[in-house]
Amino acid sequence: MARARKAQRARTSTPRARTLVRASAPQLKAEEVAIVLLGAFNPSIFQPAWMASQGVLDESEASAAEIGIIHPDVVSFRVGAIAIEVLRERFQAQTTDASAFESLRDLVVGVFGRLLHTPIGAMGINRSTHHELPSHAAWNRLGHRLVPKDPWEPVMNRPGTKNITIEGTRDDSRVGYVRAIFEPSTLIEQGVFQTINDHYQFNEGDPQKNIPASDAMTTLAEVWSDSLSRARAIADHILTLA
């Protein structure tokens, strides 16, 4: 409580003191953005050499790709900062390099711009982060504010927050949801892991109503910037509770 009172006084004192308060804010330590498509895929097609032949990758990029596995049922490889994994019912491209986020979107749009008729049932734009909190007290406070422990203490010994999943309806005209997952970081001491899944449902849950990849890519291009901004806003808001 003494520290809290000092922080409150600092916010009303000199500009230098306010700078010190901001310096103790949660620090972003790791970030990942992924584009996930659900539908019907032929994994064998998705190879660096094919992407180069279609003009999606340069020959040098394709030659330098790191191959994980090439199999009729699963393909995985990394090209630069972007990792790709394709199963028969799922395509994912992801990167942990913030400078490659736009390249990630362009790569996916480029690939399915050559596979226009691939049936797509759903799409997720997912942002995951690990933040380090300034103190163990702040780490505990955030967990307590998201899930108060008072109701649990009479029946559990030292209850703690392990995982929270919150799902909200979309605030646009599209079908789907926004799902936020919060849990303690497994990478960072007194850290917080958050993932925001911005989900777009194209087929009403019926594979017979899948849409062509060309339409899904139009949606991706239209919502990309707003989706990432929404994910950042959700994560940043939660962190203010610490």
In short:
The chain is built from 7 helices and 10 strands.
How would you describe the overall organization of this protein?
The protein is an alpha+beta fold and about 240 residues long. It has 2 domains: about 25-40 and about 95-240, no CATH class; about 40-90, no CATH class. It is built from 7 helices and 10 strands. Strands 1, 2, 3, 4, 5, 6, 7, 8, 9 and 10 form a 10-stranded antiparallel β-sheet that branches. Helix 5 (about 100-115) packs antiparallel against helix 7. Mean pLDDT is about 90; it is low at about 1-25.
**Radius of gyration of CA atoms, rounded to a whole number:** 22 Å
Tell me the total number of β-strands. Answer: 10
Q: How much of the polypeptide forms β-strand, as a percent range?
A: 25-35%
Mean pLDDT: 91
The domain tally reads 2
What structural class do helix, strand and pairing data support?
alpha+beta
Helix-strand topology string: HHEHHEEEEHEHEEEEH
- How would you sum up the major sheet? 10 strands, antiparallel
Helix proportion range: 25-40%
Overall spatial form: globular
Uncertain segments are: 1-23
Please count the helical segments. 7
- CA distance, first residue to last residue: 14 Å
